[in-house]
């Protein structure tokens, strides 16, 4: 059965979702009974979170009395909170434990959790709960990522850690610090599981140079808005995962027409429907990723992530929209004819450059550029934190002319985001 075909569980989920105002209005012109998810409109992130900010009850199907309320790394003026009941969180954690085992963790592993703690602690909590719910005993060492890399390296040595879990940026800095201190990577370390951002091949090669024989795998394709979406098994290359069929339905669609893409090798926009989330349903939700199928249809179908969709971008472990930056630039009083974001990696740090083509009559100045950066860091708080942690280089603004902007080789249009990582 295709990922978008209706099952009894999906039919029940759609009926349930109509209880909240957001889906009731979204589905006002949709038939009561649909034969496939493709007959329902996509959930656009901007519209969804605008409804949430207007009144969270519009997107909830009941009162939130247990479980967790999780924050994502969006703008401070536009908070995104994910509401997960206790029952839902337990299901996500059990699925997460299987993802960790599929990625290579095993009986008796001492697992160093290097995910972020604090207000944006979803990954930390997810790995913590997944280790605790594993069907084989493992020991978690909740180290976090706030300590200096040199201190974390000392902890890893002291605790004889077997496996590390964290974002590629943090993992790379910690292993580099360890190798700098001791001339080589940790002898006890056998496995490295990454999440939160994509791992580049050159990063993986460098990590294996520090720790020869190191096994590297994804801890799972997950996001705060949804939960766990896909798992990696030994057959998965970097960027590949298998659909977690018991928890989600995935669709890849043409971003312009919305037509479902079922053929392997054809890129498109990834939509996710959660079969677990009922307090705050997510049906055909635009997660902001591009992907393509790698295998024919079937349970646990393999797909490959291809980076962020054009209107979305990421920096370190934070995910944002192009509109976030447009709002900041306008708030700074800058009128532009065009705007382009350049995201790159330099060594172990990621970098964001905002290229601005001024509108006619708009004065260019270093002060205005600094104002844009100041407002950006005030609104996108995760970036400020990652700069302070040394994971991201200081953000810069470049005034330029239209000819300086990168065009799509296929369509000849100006790209919104140029990501060279």
What this model shows, in words?
This protein is globular. The protein has eleven helices and 20 strands. A seven-stranded antiparallel β-sheet has the order 8-9-10-14-13-12-11, covered by helices on one side. Strands 4-3-5-6-7 form a five-stranded parallel β-sheet, sandwiched between helices. Helix 4 (86-102) packs across helix 5, helix 7 (168-182) runs parallel beside helix 8 and helix 10 (366-379) crosses helix 11. The two termini are 36 Å apart. With 421 residues, it is α/β, with parallel strands linked by helices. Helices cover 29% and strands 25% of the residues. It folds into three domains: 8-88 and 221-308, ANL, N-terminal domain (Rossmann fold), CATH 3.40.50; 104-218, Rossmann fold (3-Layer(aba) Sandwich); 312-419, 2-Layer Sandwich (GMP Synthetase, Chain A, domain 3).
Question: Top keywords for this entry?
Answer:
421 residues, Rossmann fold, 3 domains, 7-stranded antiparallel beta sheet, 29% helix
Strand and helix map with partners:
Blueprint: H1 8-17, H2 21-26, H3 45-54, E1 68-71, E2 81-84, H4 86-102, E3 110-113, H5 122-132, E4 139-142, H6 149-159, E5 163-166, H7 168-182, E6 191-194, H8 201-210, E7 215-218, E8 221-223, E9 227-231, E10 240-243, E11 248-253, E12 268-274, E13 285-293, E14 302-308, E15 312-315, E16 318-321, H9 322-331, E17 336-346, E18 349-358, H10 366-379, H11 381-388, E19 396-399, E20 417-419
Parallel strand pairs: 3-4, 3-5, 5-6, 6-7, 17-20, 18-19
Antiparallel strand pairs: 1-2, 8-9, 9-10, 10-14, 11-12, 12-13, 13-14, 15-16, 17-18
Helix pairs in contact: 4-5, 6-7, 7-8, 9-10, 10-11
Domain AMP-dependent synthetase/ligase: 72-273
Protein name: AMP-dependent synthetase/ligase domain-containing protein
InterPro entries: AMP-dep_synth/lig_dom, ANL_N_sf
């Amino acid at each position: 059965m295709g990922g978008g075909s209706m099952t009894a569980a999906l039919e029940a989920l759609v009926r349930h979702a109509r209880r909240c105002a957001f889906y009731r209005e979204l589905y006002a012109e949709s038939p009561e009974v649909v034969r496939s998810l493709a007959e329902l409109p996509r959930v656009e992130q901007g519209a969804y979170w605008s409804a949430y900010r207007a009144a969270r009850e519009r997107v909830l199907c009941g009162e939130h009395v247990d479980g967790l309320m999780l924050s994502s790394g969006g703008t401070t003026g536009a908070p995104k909170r994910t509401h997960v009941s206790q029952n839902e969180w337990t299901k996500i954690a059990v699925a997460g434990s299987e993802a960790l085992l599929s990625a290579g963790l095993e009986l008796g592993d001492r697992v160093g959790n290097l995910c972020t703690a604090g207000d944006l602690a979803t990954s930390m909590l997810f790995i913590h709960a997944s280790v605790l719910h594993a069907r084989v005993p493992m020991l978690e060492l909740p180290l976090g990522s706030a300590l200096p890399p040199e201190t974390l390296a000392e902890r890893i040595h002291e605790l004889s850690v077997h496996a590390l879990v964290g974002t590629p940026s943090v993992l790379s800095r910690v292993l580099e610090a360890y190798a700098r201190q001791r001339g080589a990577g940790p002898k006890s370390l056998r496995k490295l599981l990454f999440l939160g951002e994509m791992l580049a091949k050159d990063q993986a090669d460098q990590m294996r140079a520090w720790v020869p024989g190191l096994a590297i795998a994804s801890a799972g394709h997950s996001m705060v808005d949804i939960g766990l979406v896909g798992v990696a098994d030994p057959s998965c290359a970097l960027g590949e995962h298998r659909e977690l069929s018991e928890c989600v339905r995935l669709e890849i669609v043409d971003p312009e027409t919305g037509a479902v893409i079922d053929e392997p090798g054809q890129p498109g926009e990834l939509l996710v429907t959660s079969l677990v989330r009922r307090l705050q349903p997510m049906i055909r939700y635009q997660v902001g990723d591009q992907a393509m199928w790698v295998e024919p249809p079937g349970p646990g179908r393999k797909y490959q992530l291809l980076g962020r969709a054009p209107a979305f971008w990421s920096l370190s472990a934070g995910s944002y929209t192009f509109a976030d930056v447009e709002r900041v630039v306008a708030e700074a009083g800058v009128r532009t004819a065009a705007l382009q974001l350049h995201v790159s990696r330099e060594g172990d740090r990621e970098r964001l450059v905002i290229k601005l083509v001024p509108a006619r009559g708009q004065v260019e100045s270093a002060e205005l550029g600094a104002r844009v950066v100041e407002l950006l860091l005030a609104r996108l708080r995760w970036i400020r934190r990652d700069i302070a942690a040394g994971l991201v280089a200081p953000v810069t603004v470049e005034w330029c002319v239209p000819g300086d902007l990168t065009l799509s080789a296929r369509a000849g249009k100006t790209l919104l985001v140029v990501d060279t990582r």
